[in-house]
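RECORD TYPE: inverse folding
INPUT: structure tokens
STRUCTURE:
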């Protein structure tokens, strides 16, 4: 047996090799003894061999993979195929070098990661117009990933999750979980090569006209009804997704609520193009907003002293506001634009009430032709004047058959005086 054990161990200058094929044929006791003998020879009895040392060597012997361990005194035990090699590592700065290298890699990796994060965040929250508000690649949760107005092709225009009037909500070109696009921009519905819905008319990436706010394929806001590139109805001036002026509630292409004319003068105001034209209500000098339509249609009206059942004596009031958005006093005229007036008497009257030093007029006869009835009305800086125009067919207490079946159709116009 001693001869067989000598075959297992080959000593070469503080280096021992065990043939694992032969070693595995020994019983457990003999295996322990051979490992202990090798360790004692290598250590020259300067290290007390414990069961723990033997167990560590046995573990690597039975490891299915090539591996290595270190025992005291830089003694390396390496499993390499069918060989178990014992050798002392030479004293060197390898360990220090490895530690330095690992430290460098860790620091370098962190720096690289930080640099990537920094570079990534440099591309986030880009302010395109210098107003201090992020416009492009908006990162809402500061995770370095774009959430709103994402520029995917680096052309400084949003391509995905585009918001509306800077409302920080993904409204257009919304990327869904299945990688499909919801509510795309520049939709050509009828295939004529012209945009019909969510039209970006100035090529900046944000839709300007015919806005489908909820993605149901129906135009909700900023409608261009005559295809001239100018928004006509359902204007949203504050970006909340709700019509503010020129609201067409029944979608018959006629304003029903908050109808407006925006008058532009030479005192620093003027319309600014949104897309290829249109009203920018914040850039106008004088803004006139009608509560309902600015037109009056009165037909089959009875005198106001005839109050019996079944007759119509009431004419809806016309209400509007005039806004001076500048820091200087402005002046304007108010006119009747008469389309038709078939009343024969002077009994079809109107009156004007206002506040904030606006024009006031007691009952007067409605004119038969277009007439300016309020000249050079002043409105103070940053002031809003509210107007109410009332109409009536004045009763004389006598028979008024001469006004029976007559009608009136006209419109109120407010025009700023250019000075």
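DESIGNED SEQUENCE:
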């Amino acid at each position: 047996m001693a001869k067989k054990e000598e075959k297992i161990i080959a000593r070469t200058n503080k280096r021992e090799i065990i043939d694992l094929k032969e070693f595995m044929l020994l019983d457990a006791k003999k295996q322990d003894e051979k490992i202990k003998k090798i360790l004692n020879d290598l250590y020259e009895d300067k290290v007390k061999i414990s069961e723990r040392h033997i167990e560590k060597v046995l573990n690597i012997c039975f490891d299915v993979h090539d591996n290595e361990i270190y025992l005291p005194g830089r003694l390396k035990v390496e499993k390499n195929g069918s060989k178990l090699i014992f050798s002392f590592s030479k004293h060197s700065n390898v360990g220090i070098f490895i530690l330095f290298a690992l430290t460098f890699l860790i620091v370098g990796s962190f720096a690289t990661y930080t640099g990537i994060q920094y570079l990534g965040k440099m591309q986030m929250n880009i302010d395109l117009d210098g107003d201090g508000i992020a416009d492009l690649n908006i990162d809402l949760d500061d995770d370095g990933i774009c959430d709103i107005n994402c520029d995917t092709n680096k052309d400084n225009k949003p391509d995905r999750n585009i918001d509306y009037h800077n409302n920080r909500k993904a409204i257009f070109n919304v990327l869904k979980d299945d990688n499909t696009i919801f509510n795309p921009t520049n939709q050509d519905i009828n295939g004529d090569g012209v945009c019909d819905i969510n039209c970006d008319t100035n090529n900046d990436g944000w839709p300007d006209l015919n806005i489908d706010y909820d993605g149901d394929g129906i135009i909700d806001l900023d409608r261009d009804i005559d295809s001239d590139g100018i928004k006509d109805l359902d204007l949203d001036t504050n970006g909340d997704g709700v019509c503010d002026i020129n609201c067409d509630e029944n979608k018959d292409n006629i304003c029903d609520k908050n109808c407006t004319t925006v008058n532009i003068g030479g005192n620093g105001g003027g319309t600014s193009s949104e897309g290829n034209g249109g009203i920018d209500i914040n850039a106008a000098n004088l803004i006139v907003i009608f509560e309902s339509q600015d037109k009056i249609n009165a037909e089959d009206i009875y005198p106001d002293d005839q109050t019996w059942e079944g007759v119509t004596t009431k004419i809806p009031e016309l209400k509007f506001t005039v806004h001076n958005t500048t820091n200087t006093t402005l002046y304007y005229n108010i006119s009747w634009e008469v389309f038709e007036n078939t009343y024969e008497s002077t009994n079809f009257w109107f009156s004007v009430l206002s506040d904030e030093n606006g024009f006031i007029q007691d009952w007067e006869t409605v004119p038969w032709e277009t007439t300016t009835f309020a000249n050079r009305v002043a409105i103070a800086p940053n002031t809003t004047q509210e107007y109410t125009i009332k109409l009536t067919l004045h009763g004389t207490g006598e028979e008024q058959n001469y006004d029976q079946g007559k009608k009136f159709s006209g419109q109120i116009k407010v025009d700023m005086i250019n000075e």
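NOTES: The helical segments are 2-8, 20-23, 28-43, 51-61, 94-122.
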